[in-house]
Structure formats: structure tokens, C-alpha cells
Amino acid sequence: MQRKKIHFGIIGLGLMGKEFSSSIARWCHLLDNSPIPVVSAICDKNKETWKWYEDNFKDITIKTDDYKDLLNSKDIDAIYCAVPHNLHEKIYTDIINAGKHLLGEKPFGIDKNANKNILEAIKNNPEVSVRCSSEFPYFPACQQLIKWLNARKYGRLIEVRTGFHHSSDMDLNKPINWKRMVEINGEYGCMGDLGIHTLHIPFRMGWKPKNVYADLQKIAETRPDGSGGMVPCKTWDNAVLTCRSTDRETGKEFSMIIETKRMAPGSTNNWFIEVYGTEGSVIFSTHNPKAFNFLTTSGKEQGWTRIDVGSQSAIPTITGGIFEFGFSDAFQQMIGAFMHELSGNENKHPFGNVTPEETMWSHELFTAALQSGKTGNRVEIN
């Protein structure tokens, strides 16, 4: 039986647009019977970005600097959108109202109000599938961690730590870009850029923060403007959010620490989650991407066990458990989960993409964190 094709348009042809496209180019790597994504349209104001796509994707029928050309085309089924945060509200709502399925980048709106308007458009178009990008839970060892959590092997929760650390901004001579500009990135700073990645698994487990104390840092106060001058760097570089949450299974409270850092010495790009409980604990970090680390509590002395899980991904692949798994593979697995969503087989996938409701929870947390940072007080989250 011939598999259905889903024709995608891409809005925003930068790094993540290329990552999305290259994942689709090697779609035959997946041993799956879900629909096949096809790059059929591209859009970016900078026409110089078009060439890489023109050279590598021969099925492109629409090339434009006006994204509405994609929305008005009957030949486009879905959109992958990777644009700066200040453009999310307008472009995402237009995509949804046009009846196109959407896989969008985080944080789904520059602020809480923008996110609210995006979710209102989703409510008014229930036939449209909308999800938010988050790749790291699709590493095989992290999928093993998720299975372990679903089996509730931790007993009563003591503490959950989750974070995303970068160190590229440790170079104080690095020129400023839009992610360091409040008017484009938003007041959330590093939280809006990195936060949804840290929250994907906790939210899916039902671990929503009920309050937050935020330690926010602006470390690089100025950066080069690329033209020989210096300009203010107004966004938060690092954020540590100390929260309380409740385990829905036991009704008991536990501590949750969420870290988003762009100035973390020694961490080129490290995403991690640690869960500690009375009966067991578990850790995953992209520093050791094949390692599933767990501990079973028995008496006063316990020891960690490490299992090398290999590369057995949620959606099977040609190389299976033989070769190494990396970010590009995780990105492809994420798109695969979205394709299951579009085919109506989302229940057959063990871990779906970030939902619109989960993006709303993240905005509630980040908005409260900003208030906490200003007042120095712990803030309750409604």
C-alpha cells in the first residue's frame, strides 16, 4: 500500500529549518508506516537563504518571502515554523486559522498574552494538529527513563532536577543576536529559549510547579554590535527556578529545580533530568547519551547502576541498536511523533510532542518567575 504524503511548508529558513529539512531528506532511515513528510514550500524574507533548499530539495514548488503564499496554497498540508519569538503570535495564529497543521518552535509566543491568543486560535480550529518542538526526550536512554517513570519505580518523590546548559555565551566577544534582545526574544530571556525543553517530561508526568522562587542573572551586560560598537544585553543569561510541585499519584509535595543557563562553564550543550525518590532514582544527561542510570533503594546504602541502552529509538531505524544516536536522530524522532499525530496514530507512539496546553503551563511558570525575580519573593502559580 502506498503511504500518504504530507506536504510541508517551512517558514524561517535558518538553522532549525535546515535541520527539519535534512531530517525529512533521510526519512527512509525510519522503519515506519506513518505518512511521509515532503518539503514542498519555503519562505524567508532573506532570499539568500533559499539557495541551500533549492539545491537540495527538488520537490519545492513554492519559494516566497510572504508566508501567506504557503497558507493560501491548497497543496500545503502542514507548516514547520522557526521564527523569532516576537513573530509567533501573528504567524502561528494565521497558520492555524488557515487550517494548516503546525509544528512550531518554542516558546509559542513572546509572552503569556501572545500564548493565550495562539491557544484561542487552536480552540477555534479543532481539526488542526498543533505541537511544539522539543527533541531531547527522544534519545533512547531518555525514552528508557520515561518508561521507568511511568512504572512509578521512584516511590514517593523527593526531588526533580531538570536543566539545559550552554556555554557559548561565555565568550564575551560574541556579537549580540536576537536571542539577547528583549524586544525580539522577550523578557523571559533564557527561560523562553530553553525552558520548554526542561519541562517536557515533568509536565507529561503531571508535575506542574505550584509556586516558584526565581534566581535570575544578567551576567553579560553589554555585547559587541558587530559594527565595532557595544550595545546593552538586556535578557536573562541564567535562571534557576526553585519550585514546589505535587505528585498526582500520591498527593504529596516535592521539590523541583529547573535550570536554564546560557553561561554554564564547560557545558557546550547539555540537557539533563534527575528524579530522586524514596524507592528509586534515575538520571539522564546528554553528556552521556547512551547511559541509563538508575538506583534502587534498599536499606541505608545504595549504588547506582548504569546500562548502555544503545540506539533503539521509539520509531525503529535502519541501524537500530548498532550505531550512535545524536541530536539529528532525536530531531527526526520528534518529527516522527508529529507524523503519528497527523495520521491519527498518536496513541501508538510512547511519547508525543509538547502540547499547546503544556506551552501554556510554561508561560504561567515563566511569568511567575519574572515576578519573583523582581520582588525577591516566592510567587504562587494559578
Blueprint of the fold:
Layout: E1 5-11, H1 15-25, E2 36-43, H2 50-56, E3 62-64, H3 68-71, E4 78-81, H4 88-97, E5 101-104, H5 112-124, E6 130-132, H6 140-150, E7 157-166, H7 182-185, H8 190-204, E8 209-217, E9 222-224, E10 230-232, E11 238-246, E12 253-261, E13 269-277, E14 280-285, E15 291-296, E16 304-308, H9 327-343, H10 356-375, E17 379-380
Parallel strand pairs: 1-2, 1-4, 2-3, 4-5, 5-6, 7-12
Antiparallel strand pairs: 7-13, 8-11, 8-17, 9-10, 11-12, 13-14, 14-15, 15-16
Helix pairs in contact: 1-9, 4-5, 5-10, 8-10
User: Helix/strand-derived class?
Assistant: alpha/beta
The dominant shape is globular
Unreliable segments (pLDDT under 50, ≥5 consecutive)? Answer: none
CATH superfamily heading of the largest domain:
Dihydrodipicolinate Reductase, domain 2
Radius of gyration: 21 Å
Helix content: 25-40%
Note the gap between the termini. 50 Å
CATH topology of the largest domain, which one? Dihydrodipicolinate Reductase, domain 2
Instruction: Indicate the proportion of strand residues.
Output: 25-35%
Known CATH architecture of the largest domain? 2-Layer Sandwich
